[in-house]
């Protein structure tokens, strides 16, 4: 199998707009908590993530017993797929769904089946149509990566109602904090037994480097996943940082508001230049070009200016680049380069 392709880091000093990291970094309280926890590094971390789970449960009004934490939500995705799908089984996802799901399926020997999207937006009808007796898991990401689009939560609830009871539905909300929909009804699906909701501290909380994700699991599913998690999976420093970040909701909200503002300006500049972007509900935007050659030529121009966007060939979208929302000066420079590119007739 091919290894999962992370974004390339480019030369030293390049500005990454490639990994959907936060433009605002972690809460100062998280940094202070991490520094304080360093002194305890001689000890193994809490295998029950007690403080972090308590903070998540208080912030979201959830039962701490239903929460499991992972070394990034990637660890939880990998363990869920290994626990519930194997050779001969199908994992159904969306055409442009998060690519790591495919890698996790390969690791488990399961087949990944993609349902087509309509206008860069996932279609629950297309997912419904592709459920077969071999489908074990339906995986969807809302808001989606790399499209940034989202569907109403009511459509996910209706999909759950129509799926066979023994099919596991995984709702990946890595960008959930950027979505203005109330997540309560999606969290509530986990109370019915066959649905897991995943979240991460890597995006809106600015803690990608601390590798901390969490999920809300029905008890039996959580028990199965737990057997596959690496015990002591989240370091003591990461747990301390994540707990403090979770308790600093003000920083998270300011990050979301600041990101949305920069994103709106960037999208407006690109639209004014003639690009047609899907509306994003996340901390990145997908930029379609006329074709793959134009996308590559634009990427080269951006790279020459020290700006690295993410090529989308792995998603079957080689005519697109994905730009993470970063500091305003970097976005302004990127918008300027892309506007000039278009103006000079290179996007064709
Ligand atoms: C949709 C989606 N899910 C999950 C992840 C994994 O995040 P992490 O492992 O950092 O929690 C990402 C990271 O980019 C993502 O885009």
UniProtKB/TrEMBL annotation:
Signal peptide coordinates:
none
According to UniProt, this protein's pathway is: Amino-acid biosynthesis
Keyword entries, A-Z: Aminotransferase, Pyridoxal phosphate, Transferase
**GO MF annotation: an example:** transaminase activity
Cofactor(s) needed by this chain = pyridoxal 5'-phosphate
A matching Pfam family: Aminotran_1_2
Question: At the top level of its lineage, which domain of life is listed?
Answer: Bacteria
Note whether Isomerase occurs among the keywords.
no
Which InterPro entries does UniProt cross-reference here?
Aminotrans_II_pyridoxalP_BS, Aminotransferase_I/II_large, HistidinolP_aminotransfase, PyrdxlP-dep_Trfase, PyrdxlP-dep_Trfase_major, PyrdxlP-dep_Trfase_small
List each copy of the Aminotransferase class I/classII large domain by range.
15-331
Family to which this protein belongs: Belongs to the class-II pyridoxal-phosphate-dependent aminotransferase family. Histidinol-phosphate aminotransferase subfamily.
What is the protein name stated in its UniProt record?
Answer: Aminotransferase class I/II-fold pyridoxal phosphate-dependent enzyme
């Amino acid at each position: 199998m091919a290894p999962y392709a992370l974004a390339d880091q480019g030369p030293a000093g390049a500005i990454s707009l490639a990994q959907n990291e936060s433009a605002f970094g972690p809460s100062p309280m998280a940094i202070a908590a991490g520094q304080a926890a360093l002194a305890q590094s001689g000890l193994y971390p809490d295998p029950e993530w007690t403080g972090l789970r308590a903070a998540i449960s208080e912030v979201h009004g959830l039962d701490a017993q239903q929460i499991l934490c992972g070394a990034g939500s990637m660890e939880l995705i990998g363990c869920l797929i290994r626990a519930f799908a194997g050779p001969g089984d199908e994992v159904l996802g969306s055409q442009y769904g998060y690519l790591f799901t495919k890698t996790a399926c390969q690791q488990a020997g399961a087949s990944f089946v993609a349902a087509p999207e309509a206008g860069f937006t996932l279609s629950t009808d297309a997912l419904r149509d592709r459920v077969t007796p071999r489908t074990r898991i339906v995986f969807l990401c809302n808001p989606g990566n790399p499209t940034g689009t989202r569907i109403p939560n009511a459509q996910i609830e209706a999909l759950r109602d129509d799926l066979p009871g023994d099919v596991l539905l995984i709702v990946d909300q890595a960008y959930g904090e950027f979505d203005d929909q109330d997540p309560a009804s999606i969290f509530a699906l986990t109370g019915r037994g066959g649905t897991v909701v995943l979240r991460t501290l890597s995006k809106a909380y600015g803690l990608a480097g601390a590798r901390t994700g969490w999920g809300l699991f029905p008890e039996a599913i959580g028990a199965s996943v737990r057997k596959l998690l690496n015990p002591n999976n989240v370091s003591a420093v990461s747990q301390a940082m994540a707990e403090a970040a979770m308790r600093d909701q003000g920083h998270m909200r300011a990050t979301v508001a600041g990101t949305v503002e920069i994103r709106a300006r960037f999208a407006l500049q690109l639209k004014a230049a003639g690009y047609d972007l899907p509306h994003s509900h996340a901390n990145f935007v997908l930029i379609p070009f006329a074709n793959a050659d134009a996308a590559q030529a634009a990427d080269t121009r951006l790279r020459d200016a020290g700006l690295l966007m993410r090529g989308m060939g792995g998603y079957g979208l080689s005519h697109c680049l994905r730009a993470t929302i970063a500091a305003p000066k970097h976005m302004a420079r990127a918008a300027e380069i892309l506007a000039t590119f278009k103006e000079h007739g290179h996007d064709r």
